[in-house]
Batch of 2 targets.
Target 1
Amino acid sequence: MKCMKYNLAFIGFGNVGQGLARILVDKKNLLKKRHNFEFNVVAVSDIKKGSIFDENGLDLEKLLQLVQKTGTIENYGDGQKGLSSIEIIEKDTADIIIEVTWTNLETGEPGLTHIRKALAAGKHVVTTNKGPIALAYRELMQIAKVHNVFLRFEGTVLSGTPAISLALEDLAGAYVKSVRGIVNGTTNYILTQMEAGASYEEALETAQKLGYAEADPTMDVEAWDPVAKITILANVVMGGDLKVKDVERRGITSITIEDIKAAQREGERIKLIAKAWRENGEIKAKVSPEKVPLTDVLAHIGGTLNALTFDTDVLKEVTTVGRGAGGVEAGYALLSDMLAINRYLGGTR
Amino acid sequence: MKCMKYNLAFIGFGNVGQGLARILVDKKNLLKKRHNFEFNVVAVSDIKKGSIFDENGLDLEKLLQLVQKTGTIENYGDGQKGLSSIEIIEKDTADIIIEVTWTNLETGEPGLTHIRKALAAGKHVVTTNKGPIALAYRELMQIAKVHNVFLRFEGTVLSGTPAISLALEDLAGAYVKSVRGIVNGTTNYILTQMEAGASYEEALETAQKLGYAEADPTMDVEAWDPVAKITILANVVMGGDLKVKDVERRGITSITIEDIKAAQREGERIKLIAKAWRENGEIKAKVSPEKVPLTDVLAHIGGTLNALTFDTDVLKEVTTVGRGAGGVEAGYALLSDMLAINRYLGGTR
């Protein structure tokens, strides 16, 4: 296997981008030695933190320290400042674009434009951005195909815990009849706290204090986030062509302690279940609170943990369990996508 | 991605070989259309059922029907009969050798010789045979490397449920600190039956009636099978160099209903746990019955199900759950290995 060196450009440098940067700094030698993967970061561009470009390579450790101390990368020193994300993407320099801007489930922007332009410019793209993949998977894969580049997005579902690669690669020869699981850690944490006796309001407050829930928790508690994820799974893993609005959606805001206790009395637990299945030749998807019997592994996925069960023809049910959020975890998802690209390009044995 | 066509030779045609053959027949068109994978079966050789070779390709459906009706493939009609496994392996015709003879944990034979010779002859090898991988992983990978071919063995651990590919590919950039799990369905079924009130003897008898346990259940109940699997995991996933005899081993034959009940009273379940971990710079491994708290997902893996938890640096714990045995499941493992080879050779996008 040959050692490949890639020029990387970060588009977005928030929690996830910094998570990947930290891993890349820590594992630099190991990645070269064990995986024949070398890299050079040629650009970092973030709408709030500034933009630095240097085709000779940036010092990632220095950038991390700078952003942690000052909140921006404006005072980096060397390199070219002020290029827009699009300008960086369209330069010839980068081989892989790391798209980690924020998720927008209505327009997919600005990530959608970033990914379109990067693929059309012949660059591989790795992303954790759910918006573009939930909204435009088929279109983007078509652009990737035409330009003979990879588009990978492991981190859009279950963060770094293998889900997309598991389904597309490890389960490649299996036929996925349905997918079902817990794909949002915030709501699972709230429901787990409620089982232990907290009210919805108390549980949400704790989740916010611990950083598991946003100040505005709508995306999680009203189930928009799991809807985006099940849309991705339905389209990517099961061959569907669903839109986010096609997915039946019910969040957890109306769940009471009484509901939780009633379920417990029946030997069940209430979980926010995202699922996609086949019905009369069509792919359907839904997210809603469901009573899950204790005989189901999903009933035992507590706290912020996530899990997905793929029901297949040849293997029956295969379940993957792990963390579904976190900067380092999502950063790892991007690394795992880049290592996959490297294996395919380098010809692993 | 180009469509690749492979000549396949089955060395061994028992439960697992027939499981793969059934999948290949059923999915032939799909594999070509969806995965650009075409095949031609040029040989089937089994010590009990006979040996047929035809470089123009054998009719797999006909072979399956023949072996199911008559127990042999001697009356296939066309093709060359009577070649030994070694002769077939050393012919130029096959591209991939499917090694599915029986597991021998003392010598690894005859599988070890088959795999050595196949790799040295420049052929890719896919296998579910635990013996050669548990005993000679490093040596075999070295031969594969020298001859620039793939050796893949997903089915040696957890059958078709992703375990080896999950660890080596999806978790490639993560550092596995330990592996821990339930990797033997027979003993897990017996322990689950005992929790429901059966004695060890009753549970074993039921397992034998259902085909989950062999007439001589020693390999399972004395934990030789899970020892082989944890040896493979320790060496392949964690970089160890353990021998089967280095692994501390205790089976389930001395577990009583009283032990099970005592554990239940403490809110725990007894599971036969296989684990490998790092200690003072060394890799250690052990298989023994352990009390597992109900807060651990492994406590909820019942019946013949298997599960493995990888504890990693960047993702913390990642768990995979699924069936760990069965002809079709193990057959699928071989297919998934071949599809992986095809993706690497064909340059997936």
Target 2
Amino acid sequence: MAKSSPFGKHSARSRKPANSRPLGEFELIAQIRQLFAANSAEFVKVGIGDDAAVLSFGGKELVWTIDSSVENVHFRFEWLSDADIGWRSLHAAASDLAAMGAIPVGALSALELPRRFRESRLVKLLEGQRDAAHSLGCPIVGGNLTSAEVLAVTTTLIGHTKRAKLRSSARVGDELWLIGDAGLAAAGLGCLAGGSRGRRGSAVDRCVQAWRRPVALIKHGCALVGQARAVIDISDGLVGDAQHLAEASRVAIELDAEALEAVLADELREVADRLSRPALDLALYGGEDYALLATGSRLKRPAVARRIGQVVDGKGIWWATRGRRRRVPSRGFDHFET
Amino acid sequence: MAKSSPFGKHSARSRKPANSRPLGEFELIAQIRQLFAANSAEFVKVGIGDDAAVLSFGGKELVWTIDSSVENVHFRFEWLSDADIGWRSLHAAASDLAAMGAIPVGALSALELPRRFRESRLVKLLEGQRDAAHSLGCPIVGGNLTSAEVLAVTTTLIGHTKRAKLRSSARVGDELWLIGDAGLAAAGLGCLAGGSRGRRGSAVDRCVQAWRRPVALIKHGCALVGQARAVIDISDGLVGDAQHLAEASRVAIELDAEALEAVLADELREVADRLSRPALDLALYGGEDYALLATGSRLKRPAVARRIGQVVDGKGIWWATRGRRRRVPSRGFDHFET
């Protein structure tokens, strides 16, 4: 099964595997953009097509996003505590603000609650949201409750920034930067989905925690505002979101194999071994890390950013290793692999 | 089954009938308010507790709301076209802006899409949203797509106003005003839920249309800004929302039976007869009309507002007829009565 995809994203497999896809998602999102075209409306600076919408108010830019977390699509109850569900829903949504370089102002939370979800569990979920809200400095200022068949948490956030960072401003010659870790969350999910096999040790703990309790990189995103040219979060996986960035900027991206290998976390290597999967595969295609991918001039690279490639002329995502270059297949990101 | 309830609302039956309620909703929302207390945060002028949150930016107040519309909870596919579902979800959410006297700036739409919901149907739903967006002058500037078991549309809107109207500012001595019609939507739902019985004629058409294609009273809401003291929308039914207003303002409300009888729409009387239900019952307890209930000084009553009672000292909702007074039972609003 697949995770959610903001209107701005359109990886071919982001809703469901190709063999069961009733919707041509790429065409569909193009159609949505056309139907809802509104970039010229008053106050609207950026409409559909980026991590979040941007409104302009009193000299400030407001960055506004929405994200849903649905039982049996984004998580299973066996894999997350109720508090984790609350935490995760807020940080996943906040990651869009991080990508735009915005500081959270507030959140609204719409909860769809199944009848079997008793009050004591709901309180745990709300406590997870509250803790996430504290960690983000982002008060939850309202919401909505409704019954439903399965649990779903839809979160909308507003952030503010002087000037929102977009995914469409990469330039040929920019370096490609990774901020945060790639692949850990997918490795953690692999451990959880695989049952008890290989579920012990601090490396496993770190990976599982990366999936259960992601942290939106708000401070890093803000630090990129004066430094980076284009930014996107890699919730859809490094390759998938590099594609979104490349398409929006009308450039190609070359991943530097040695540079990327060098920044993989030791815990990722260890857990990938236990899962019998290449660590690089998890880093390239594993989603939900909520790390940031940015481009910018070498001279402006901040300390938190690690170079993993460069922006080049052309189309698509390329893999450069020992002087050779080949196209990276766009197989979408891993999620609920069972 | 019940409709959704914003965190600010807390009618005892707004989530589900009392006999199957695992959650003490009144206590729960009090708990949510306590957990999420954030009225003192930067930019946040009003947090949980009204139709919408209010943020303060550059001399403007931004009114921000979220609302969900879930298959088999808020609608059934037999009763609404896909375009109706799109239209209805946006206007229902926009009604919270109307109540606060705000002009829509933009909307985000999070769609949970079941696999059986094919692209052609989704496009109809999106067209319904687009038409609603045009009618409201409210561009849809982003959103999110995810798979799910059942269809759900969660909509967040931002509006702007000089000064948001709250539900907590009613004063003893104010008149109680109704803006728009009460009971039509519930009558229309009654026709739909009752199958083909009594489903013909222009009165039925008007009631069914009131349920299928509600219209948020944005202009009326804005017109109330300089005139009314407190405003709320009656999506939870006239009595239910009068209670919310009375509780928030720490006053009692006396409904004037003759005045209310006088403003009932002829179509409501006709359809109520066919449904063998008292028209007044539908007007008092029928939800989802998205009309507005306001209080204000007699001297400031605008032309669109019709007096149906007054604000008095005390607690609760009272029914005044021919000089006698009795308490109105708080049985919550009708929805999916089957």
